[in-house]
Amino acid sequence: MNNSTPLNRLGNGCCALVTELNAEGLTRRRLLDLGLVPGTKVEVIRRSPLGDPIAFNIRGAIIAFRKEEAEKVLVVQVS
Amino acid sequence: MGLTYQSTGRSTTREIFNVHNAGSELVIALAGNPNTGKSTVFNALTGLRQHTGNWPGKTVLRAEGSFIHGGRHYTLIDLPGTYSLHANSVEEEVARDFLCFAKPDATVVVVDGTCLERNLNLALQVMEITDNVIVCVNLIDEARRKNMHININKLSNALGVPVVPTAARGGEGLSELMAAISDVALGRVVPKPVLVRYSDAVEKAIAQVEPKVREIIGAHINTRWVALRLIDGDTKLVQAIQRYYNDQESKQAEAALEVLA
């Protein structure tokens, strides 16, 4: 998909669907275990004061990612 | 560790995990995602008669307690809350090692009734390791409050294991949970977990690897699961097998892994 963006670029309150994980090995495994499979809806809840990490609502749990992890998750924004 | 674990009997491996019980007691593990109320279930079942301490060599808090049901003594082990059993963190490693090597008589997977979707991942992973699984759908009161209805029978049929709804905070469903635990632990009910079927390529690889795994480690551990982990390139599992079982067996497992790599 050409209009996909990294998860960390989304503003607070945005919702998006996961399209692709740009990670390998343990990081990929970890993201998958947390429920980030393609098609999963993710909502940006809030940012910490310095903008990193960012908290997301993923399948009913609020999980925070550092920029290094969030930028590996490619998403398309939905309204 | 200066000791050699020559014998690979279950009591020996359990001793490594500091499970103190007098033979006749049944060991029950409590697994689940973080914040699903595992410890609430634990305290409700054991009546707060818990001992806390650390896992051997780890700084992960562990809790052990006991309860009596139908004249039998049950030792309950509260595993650390994890999203997965792929041993990316110390918690996951502790949980996995316990399920894999201490072989509890039954494992209760506590899931959050308000977000089953996220929780069933772990339940499926536990079912890949052991057959004796009971799924405890906790926070059922919370789910009701959110107008969510969970079809327990359908879930039980889909998973192939007993499913018990509970609201541990209010004590709801606990006697049913105890009954389900004793049914499974004593073999009155034999769960038949419905396992995940992987893509043809993966299933083919499993079919190739599993017989070799069985040859090497025998019936100690679930061979399909070990095969899957080997295909996944999980070197930590081989190290764990080395730690808990005979050296010779694990060297062969390591060799098998190298062949696959």
Keywords:
heterodimer, A: 79 residues, alpha+beta, SH3 type barrels, six-stranded antiparallel beta sheet, 2 helices, globular, B: 261 residues, alpha/beta, seven-stranded mixed beta sheet, 11 helices, disordered N terminus
Detail the topology: elements first, then pairings.
The complex is a heterodimer of chains A (79) and B (261).
Chain A: E1 5-6, E2 15-21, H1 25-33, E3 41-47, E4 54-58, E5 61-65, H2 67-70, E6 73-78
Antiparallel strand pairs in A: 1-6, 2-3, 2-6, 3-4, 4-5
Chain B: H1 10-16, E1 26-32, H2 38-46, E2 51-54, E3 61-69, E4 72-78, H3 90-102, E5 106-112, H4 116-129, E6 133-138, H5 140-145, H6 152-159, E7 163-165, H7 174-185, H8 200-217, H9 223-231, H10 235-244, H11 247-260
Parallel strand pairs in B: 1-4, 1-5, 5-6, 6-7
Antiparallel strand pairs in B: 2-3, 3-4
Short précis:
Chain A has 79 residues and is an alpha+beta fold. In chain A, 16% of the residues lie in helices and 41% in strands.
Describe the 3D structure.
The complex is a heterodimer of chains A (79) and B (261). Chain A is an alpha+beta fold. Chain A has one domain (5-78): SH3 type barrels (Roll). Helix content of chain A is 16%, strand content 41%. Chain A has helices at residues 25-33, 67-70; strands spanning 5-6, 15-21, 41-47, 54-58, 61-65, 73-78. A six-stranded antiparallel β-sheet of chain A has the order 1-6-2-3-4-5. The longest helix of chain A has 9 residues, at 25-33. Mean pLDDT of chain B is 82; it is low at 1-12. In chain B, helix 8 (200-217) packs across helix 9 (223-231) and helix 10 (235-244) packs antiparallel against helix 11. Chain B is globular and about 55 Å long. Chain B contains eleven helices and seven strands. Chain B is α/β, with parallel strands linked by helices. The longest helix of chain B has 18 residues, at 200-217. Chain B has a seven-stranded mixed β-sheet with strand order 2-3-4-1-5-6-7, with helices on both faces. In chain B, strand 3 and strand 4 form a beta hairpin. Helix content of chain B is 46%, strand content 16%. Chain B has helices at residues 10-16, 38-46, 90-102, 116-129, 140-145, 152-159, 174-185, 200-217, 223-231, 235-244, 247-260; strands spanning 26-32, 51-54, 61-69, 72-78, 106-112, 133-138, 163-165. At the A-B interface, helix 1 of A face helix 4 of B.
